[in-house]
Write a structure and sequence with these properties.
The chain is of the alpha/beta class. It has helices at residues 2-10, 13-25, 39-51, 135-151, 175-181, 235-253, 301-319, 341-354, 369-373, 398-413; strands spanning 57-63, 71-79, 90-95, 115-117, 125-127, 159-164, 191-194, 204-209, 211-220, 224-225, 267-273, 282-283, 286-295, 322-331, 359-363, 378-381, 395-397. The strands form five sheets. It has a six-stranded mixed sheet with strand order 1-2-6-3-7-16, sandwiched between helices. A four-stranded antiparallel sheet has the order 11-13-9-14, covered by helices on one side. α2 crosses α4, α4 packs across α10 (398-413) and α8 (341-354) packs across α10. The longest helix has 19 residues, at 235-253.
C-alpha cells in the first residue's frame, strides 16, 4: 500500500501547483486585519475537493457579521478508515486564513498570484502569500487524502482533514469555536497533526507551547497644557514607566529556564502603542499600550496577574494615576507527552521519509494544537518548512509539499 500511495503522491506535483495557485487567488484575511474573511476560499476548496473525489464534506460556519457571507467557515473532510474508530482517528488541522502581505513594495511579484521559481538549490518553489503558511500543510494533507481515493485504498485510521478559519488572529472563529460548540467532533483517543510549524530539516516535533497573553494597559491621568505640567498628570510618562517595570520585573520574577523552548525563558514585551494626543503642546491624560507575554507553561495566569497588580500599585502611587488592564488573548496549553501515540508514529514516519532523527521541542508561538490539548487530546505540530511565513515573497518548496504528504499518508496507515 505504501508504494502505491507514494507513487501517487509523486505524480501529484501539477495538482499541488494548481491548488496552491487557486487558493492564493482567493484572499482570506480576517476582518480583524481589514479583510473579508475566508468565505470565498472555503467555498472554492469545498467545490474543488468534491470535484476530485473527496465527497464526505461538512461545513461548520461560525457567525460573524463583519465577514463576507456573515460567517467564518470551517470545513471537515473525512476518509473512512478500516480500523474501528475506537482505535483512534487521525486529524490533520490546517488553516485557510492568511496574514496581510505587508508592504507590497517589498514583494518581487503580486502577493496573490503564485509565481514558480527554480532558482534555489533545494528545487522549485512557489511564491505568494499563504503558500507556506498554511497552504503547504493544507495541500499536503489533500494530496495524502487523494492518494487513497485515487488508488481505491482505505487508510487504517479514519482520516479527518480540518480546514479552519481565524488561526492568524487567535482562532476565536475557528478551532476555539468548534471546541466550544461542537466538542462531540473530537474524541479523547484521536491523534492530531497540525502542519503549521517546524524547521528546514523536518527534525522538530512541537509538543508544547508557551502560554500566550496579550494584555492592554490603560493609564488615566489629567490632560493639561504643555507649559503647565504642574496642573495635570502626564499619563504618558506613567505609562512608559509602567511598561518598563512590567518588562523588567516580570522577567526577573518569572525567570525559570526550559531548554525545550527557544528562547528558553518567558518573555514580556511591550509592543503596540496607541496615539494619545494629536498635538505636541498638550500633556496627555490618557495613554494605552499593549504587551505580548509568552510564558513557560508551568507558570499560572494567577501568578502573573498577582505580580502585575503589585507593579501597577507602585506606579499608581508614584504618579497619582489610575490604571486598568485587560486580556485580549489568554491561551494556555497543556503539553503533549513525548510518549503519546501521535508523537511516536510521527517520529517514525518522518525518519522514513526524510531520513532524519526528529526530536520534541516547545515553541513560543501559538497553534491550533493548544485548543485540543486543553481538552485532553494529544497533538503534534510538525512540517518541513523554510520558515518564510509572514515575510515578503513567502514561498513553499514543492518537494516539501510532496514529502510532507508522504509523512501524512504513512501516519494514516501506521499502527
Amino acid at each position: 500500500m505504501k508504494e502505491k500511495l507514494f507513487s501517487q503522491i509523486d505524480n501529484s506535483i501539477e495538482l499541488a501547483i494548481e491548488l496552491e495557485t487557486e487558493l492564493t487567488k482567493r484572499i482570506a484575511i480576517s476582518p480583524d486585519s481589514g479583510g473579508e474573511g475566508e468565505y470565498d476560499k472555503c467555498i472554492f476548496l469545498e467545490e474543488w475537493l468534491r470535484a476530485h473525489g473527496i465527497t464526505d464534506l461538512k461545513r461548520y460556519d461560525t457567525p460573524d457579521d463583519r465577514a463576507k457571507g456573515n460567517v467564518r467557515p470551517n470545513l471537515i473532510a473525512t476518509i473512512q478508515g478500516t480500523n474501528d474508530e475506537s482505535e483512534g482517528r487521525l486529524w490533520i488541522l490546517s488553516h485557510i486564513d492568511v496574514v496581510p502581505p505587508g508592504d507590497e513594495k517589498l514583494w518581487n511579484s503580486d502577493p496573490w498570484t503564485v509565481v514558480r521559481k527554480d532558482d534555489l538549490p533545494l528545487g522549485p518553489r512557489l511564491i505568494g502569500r499563504g503558500t507556506e503558511d498554511n497552504q503547504q500543510g493544507l495541500v499536503s494533507s489533500v494530496l495524502a487524502a487523494l492518494a487513497f481515493i485515487t488508488q481505491g485504498l482505505k487508510p487504517v485510521h479514519t482520516l479527518k482533514l480540518l480546514f479552519a478559519s481565524d488561526e492568524e488572529v487567535g482562532s476565536t472563529y475557528g478551532i476555539e469555536w468548534l471546541v466550544k460548540n461542537h466538542s462531540d467532533l473530537f474524541k479523547k483517543n484521536d491523534m492530531v497533526l497540525v502542519p503549521d510549524g517546524g524547521d528546514e530539516k523536518g527534525e522538530c516535533i512541537e509538543i508544547a507551547e508557551k502560554n500566550i497573553y496579550w494584555v492592554r494597559f490603560a493609564t488615566h491621568g489629567k490632560q493639561t497644557h504643555g507649559s503647565r505640567p504642574d496642573t495635570g498628570v502626564n499619563a504618558f510618562i506613567a505609562g512608559c514607566d509602567l511598561a518598563l517595570l512590567l518588562h523588567y520585573k516580570l522577567t526577573d520574577v518569572f525567570n525559570a529556564r526550559n531548554l525545550m523552548f527557544d528562547p528558553d525563558y518567558s518573555t514580556f514585551q511591550p509592543t503596540k502603542k496607541e496615539a494619545n494626543v494629536p498635538n505636541i503642546n498638550t500633556i496627555p491624560g490618557e495613554d494605552v499600550f499593549y504587551m505580548d507575554m509568552r510564558v513557560l507553561p508551568h507558570y499560572t495566569k494567577e501568578a502573573i496577574c498577582e505580580e502585575i497588580d503589585k507593579i501597577i500599585s507602585e506606579v499608581k502611587e508614584d504618579y497619582n494615576v489610575t490604571i486598568e488592564y485587560s486580556f485580549l488573548q489568554d491561551m494556555e496549553s497543556i503539553p503533549t507527552s513525548e510518549n503519546a501515540p501521535i508523537v511516536k508514529l510521527l517520529t517514525n514516519a518522518v525518519k522514513e521519509v526524510y531520513e532524519v532523527k526528529p526530536h520534541p521541542i516547545g515553541i513560543g508561538g501559538g497553534t491550533m494544537a493548544a485548543s485540543l490539548r486543553n481538552i485532553g487530546i494529544d497533538c503534534a505540530v510538525w512540517t518541513k518548512t523554510n520558515e518564510s511565513l509572514h515575510q515578503p515573497n513567502e514561498y513553499t518548496l514543492l518537494k516539501n509539499i510532496i514529502g510532507d504528504a508522504k509523512v501524512m499518508a504513512l501516519l494514516a496507515i501506521s499502527k
